[in-house]
Amino acid sequence: MKTLNFLFLCLILTTNASSIAKTCRSSHWTVYIYNLMNEPFSVHVKSRDDDLGDHTLGVNENENWRFCENIWGTTMFWADIFCNDNRNGTWHVWDHSTGLKYGSGSLDDGQRILVWLVKEDGIYVGNSLPPFPVDGWTRLYHWP
């Protein structure tokens, strides 16, 4: 019986459960990507476990998703962006350190956000929803 319990515990700990979840053990994250460019673009968001697919964002539109970070703190999402004028690229849209450094909210309220603004001169990160403040944004990615 001890062996069966041990195997069951190992199965629970090693199961690759999806990070897109309805309930979290602690707080959940919501990540937003806003199009503040003068034209639409396509974005494809994925993690190791979840592919959120392709989305075309019109001017001032956003894509967002909610997820629970895994207990090891290794959850990571990245995005591929495709603009009509050949401004294309890939960036990490969420990992533990980026969330803690630039995100808002706390473990106590259970809701945390991270916001990305895609602009003509680069991609900015911050923690505010519209209306966007003028200050408080960090440009992490420049267009090539």
Describe the structure.
- With 144 residues, the chain is mostly beta strands.
- It has one domain: Sandwich (Immunoglobulin-like), CATH 2.60.40.
- 14% of the residues lie in helices and 43% in strands.
- The chain contains two helices and ten strands, in the order H-E-E-E-E-E-E-H-E-E-E-E.
- It has helices at residues 2-14, 96-102; strands at residues 28-35, 41-47, 51-57, 62-67, 77-83, 88-94, 104-105, 111-119, 122-126, 138-141.
- The strands form two sheets. Strands 1, 4, 7, 8, 9 and 10 form a six-stranded mixed β-sheet that branches.
- The longest helix is centred in the N-terminal third of the chain and has 13 residues, at 2-14.
- The protein is globular.
- The relative contact order is 0.19.
- The model is unreliable at 6-22 (pLDDT under 50).
Topology:
Elements: H1 2-14, E1 28-35, E2 41-47, E3 51-57, E4 62-67, E5 77-83, E6 88-94, H2 96-102, E7 104-105, E8 111-119, E9 122-126, E10 138-141
Parallel strand pairs: 1-8
Antiparallel strand pairs: 1-4, 2-3, 2-5, 5-6, 7-8, 8-9, 9-10
